[in-house]
Design goal:
Strand content: over 45%
Number of strands: 10
Number of helices: 2
Shape: globular
Helix content: 10-25%
Order of helices and strands: HHEEEEEEEEEE
Strand order of the largest sheet: 1-2-3-4-5-6-7-8-9-10
Structural class: alpha+beta
């Protein structure tokens, strides 16, 4: 009886670990839709909508094109590339960045970091929600160590 209980616990643990693993390339392949708010220092909160279309390239990397509509600004497009570099690590490029994008997955969270124009340091946490079809995105922008902006967004996988 004890062996059976131990075996079931081990199987359940292995299944939970596999289910909790976040594969951002698989999530963003296809269509995604994000809705959130951006709070810039000394400004009011503004709505943000991001429509994404991703495709997995022959080398296994992701090409993600996003159309960003931010309240009070004209729409714009952004391009991401993201590739797996290790068991839990990712690297990529972003049209808004002035250098590489680095990422690490820990369970159901992908943490990205990069630098944008103007010396803005970006830290982004994408947390996969139960069911695997929704991500909570929190992006923090800092300059000289001071928080300049925060984006809170819910991203849904559409297909």
């Amino acid at each position: 009886m004890i062996r059976l209980g131990l075996a079931l616990a081990l199987v359940a643990s292995a299944c939970a670990t596999a289910a909790d693993a976040f594969d951002p390339i698989a999530f963003f392949a296809g269509h995604s839709d994000g809705v959130g708010t951006l709070k810039v220092a000394l400004s009011r909160r503004r709505g943000v909508h991001v429509a994404g279309e991703g495709q997995v390239e022959r080398d296994g990397s992701l090409l993600l094109v996003q159309r960003i509509e931010q309240e009070g600004k004209p729409p714009r497009n952004r391009r991401w590339t993201l590739r797996r570099t290790g068991d839990k690590t990712y690297a990529g490029e972003l049209s808004d960045a002035v250098g590489p994008v680095e990422g690490v997955v820990s369970g159901d969270v992908l943490r990205l970091r990069f630098t944008a124009r103007g010396g803005l340091h970006i830290r982004q946490s994408l947390t996969l929600q139960p069911g695997g079809r929704v991500i909570r995105n929190r992006l923090v922008v800092r300059k000289f160590g001071v928080r300049m902006a925060v984006l809170d967004e819910t991203i849904r996988k559409l297909d």
